[in-house]
Amino acid sequence: MIVAQQLYEGSVTIPGHTGGLITYMRTDSVNLSSFATSAAKEVITSEYGNQYALAKPRHYKSKAKGAQEAHEAIRPVNLALKPSDVKPYLDHSQYRLYSLIWKRTIATQMAQAVVANTTYKISAGANKEYEFQSKGTRIVFAGFMKAYTEGSDDPEAALDNTEKILPTISKGTVLNLEKLITEQNFTKPPARYSEAALVKKMEAEGIGRPSTYAPTIATIQAREYVIKTEDKKLQPTLIGTVVNDFLVEHFENIVSLGFTAHVEEEFDKIADGEMAWEDVMKEFYEPFVKNVDDKTENAPRAKFSDIRELGEHPELKKPITARVGQYGPYVQCGTKEDEEKPKIASIPKTIS
Length: 352
Fold this sequence. Notes:
Number of helices: 13
Helix content: 25-40%
Structural class: alpha+beta
């Protein structure tokens, strides 16, 4: 968002261009103005050819809950400014973000891709009781994929990777078995969220706004509720699990998926004059404060400290326990009463 802010403010000087490079970026709108769609058609025709342009502009509807669409979708201010035109004047991050926005905007107004799928079904066994499948894909017409392919910086390379051309085989052909590889598969748990997958989940549930996704993910990592694994997945830590279990048990209505979406809806009603902000705050705050006070006094802590007995110290003859504290797991020798006993420190003879 910091880089997007730089592009929006126009902090970089581009010869022949004044102002920002992109439109307002703190929006989840997917609407493009008629000016933008007309400009996109001109660029598509000149860059890729008439066959890639649309006869009529394509329009989209937001799938996000409670989407705020007062602004136009995020797009380049001037679509005629190609990424290659601005690259000499931007740093690496600015160029990559501008290129992404430009490609996606252009791709939304390009013709659909035509893909040919081929599936071969191969029967095996004495009574042909087994069936194997081989699937191939061939790009007949690239369409929007000429400009942008999800998850790839190089559309041309992505097109090459998409194609898996199978040889021509007529029906009834007998195939010789060269090698048979068998492996046993087990049911796997749902995959952990990556940062991108978590953003999509929050967007689908109406949690937050585009400008809050990155700070939210950064916060749970900074507080060490989750850590990022080598494969870029977000894995809960012990302290994160303890905090989550406590909140779910005692503040279920606050940490539910629908809470934020409900609050966003009320904010929209306040903006439209349908609700008074004082009533909204009173409805939430009074029961919330009572619940916090009650849990502060009565919520059991032992259940969430996750104490585990490890044995006895061979010399001190005191119990050794492992538990989860404010800063993560730790091992303790002795009891809490041992910690609270006053310790006699040496008294300095002089005061400097």
